[in-house]
Write a structure and sequence with these properties.
By secondary structure, the protein is of the alpha/beta class. It has a single domain, classed as Roll (2,3-Dihydroxybiphenyl 1,2-Dioxygenase, domain 1), CATH 3.10.180. Helices cover 26% and strands 41% of the residues. The chain has three helices and eight strands, in the order E-H-E-E-E-H-E-H-E-E-E. The strands form two sheets. It has a four-stranded mixed β-sheet with strand order 1-4-3-2, with helices on one face. Strands 5-8-7-6 form a four-stranded mixed β-sheet. A hairpin with an 8-residue loop joins strand 3 and strand 4. The two termini are 27 Å apart. The mean pLDDT is 96.
């Protein structure tokens, strides 16, 4: 068994696509219309385009438990997911220079360094460097 796709709920797929590609550096992999206002939209790491895909999944507009869960995580500052990077401090500086807001600056925690940013699409995302 292996991971092929992970879902990240987003409030606006087009805005999310721009953020995840223009700011984070992912590349669009799949873009298939599903309904008038949603699509199967995935991005992948530029360095591993055959690796796991991130599904920029439209936040359920009419499923209150999912909306409540996403909002509760966001308001509590809890990351929805995390991405590994080679150097958290370097990535932090790069993303700050692009206008990305961090709620947690690079912080060493045992065997990792983490930082947490707002993806502008309803989620906190953590970046992590293994020491």
């Amino acid at each position: 068994m292996k991971v092929k796709v992970i879902s990240v709920p987003v409030l606006d797929q087009e805005k999310a696509l721009k953020f995840y590609t223009d700011k984070l550096g992912f590349v669009k992999k799949v873009d298939v219309p599903l309904t008038a206002d949603s699509r199967w939209l995935t991005v992948v790491s530029k360095e591993d385009q055959d690796g796991p895909e991130i599904l920029l999944e439209p936040s359920p507009k009419h499923f209150e438990p999912a909306k409540t869960y996403q909002q509760a995580l966001y308001e509590a500052g809890i990351p929805y997911t995390q991405f590994n990077v080679d150097n958290v401090r370097q990535e932090y500086e790069r993303l700050v220079s692009l206008g990305i807001n961090f709620s947690v600056k690079p912080t060493e925690m045992g065997t990792v360094i983490i930082a947490v940013f707002d993806d502008t699409c309803g989620n906190n995302i953590q970046i992590v460097e293994m020491l």
